[in-house]
Amino acid sequence: MTRVETRQRVLLVEDDARLADLITEYLGKNGLEVHIERRGDLAVERTYELEPDLVVLDVMLPGRDGFDICRELRARGATTPIVFLTARDEDFDRVLGLELGADEFIPKPIQPRVLLAHIRAVLRRAGMRERPGPVADSLAFGKLEIDNAAREVRVGGKPVELTTSEFDVLWLLARHAGKVLSRNDILQQLRSLDYDGSDRSVDCRIYRLRRKLGDLAASTERIKTIRNVGYLFSPTNW
Predict the structure, then answer these.
(1) Are 191 and 227 in a shared domain?
(2) Gap between the Cα atoms of 177 and 150, Å rounded
């Protein structure tokens, strides 16, 4: 069935009723349609029922934790953007969430307006398309093919499943092949947020990209780490 709503739909998986109601009210006043799910063991099914544009996911939930939910959604091929909103803010939790395929990992407490800014940034990335102009809709480097219009990636003709944020990072690096991009460059262009010197989300996404593209086992690194500077996408050896 074709959806006709103009408001973007958010599934909020949060068992704190007061917080969930506060977030729902604020996001609703700012143009988003929010649905609440309070149980972790119902979150995957609810995601497929609602087909939301974005999922905001707590970690500590009754029935099932948020990491398991994220893991199953990504394993089943869901590319819906996922934003973790949780009181767990250890580096291990942040890295785990991002490696499982989340697009953002936001610690509680957070002001609703700040959460809204994060959500809007992720939704922009999820719906990001290149403006008409000289930039190609697809790029090819040896066996690697990147189709921005279809948001598809293939290596040797075989599709590679990437999350929204992974694809965006790859497309950005590939469009600037041969040029070093700092973490700040990447964050500025994809998140509109300043790099504070401690956010390792870019590193995690680069690691996942390398793993999925077979770059970890390659004798010649194709997405190169430039120590203390950033990353460089090599146009050769693919």
Answers:
(1) yes
(2) 20
* Structure confidence by residue, pLDDT tens digits, 132-183: 334 457 888 888 999 988 889 999 889 999 988 888 889 989 888 888 888 7
The answer to whether residues 156 and 115 belong to one domain is no
Is 186 within a domain? yes
Whether residue 23 is contained in a domain is answered as yes
pLDDT tens-place string over residues 123-135 = 888 775 333 334 4
Pairing of strands 104-107, 54-57: unpaired
Q: Quickly list DSSP for the chain.
A: ------SEEEEEE---HHHHHHHHHHHHHTTEEEEEE--GGGHHHHHHHH--SEEEE-SS-SSS-HHHHHHHHHHTT----EEEEES---HHHHHHHHHTT-SEEEESS--HHHHHHHHHHHHHHHT--PPSSSS-SEEEETTEEEETTTTEEEETTEE----HHHHHHHHHHHHTTTSEEEHHHHHHHHH-----S---HHHHHHHHHHHHTT-SS-SS-SEEEETTTEEEE-SS--
- Token pair listed for 83: 């934003």
Q: How far apart are the first and last CA of the chain?
A: 40
Number of structural domains, the chain?
A: 2
Closest by CA position to 163, among listed 47, 70, 68: 70
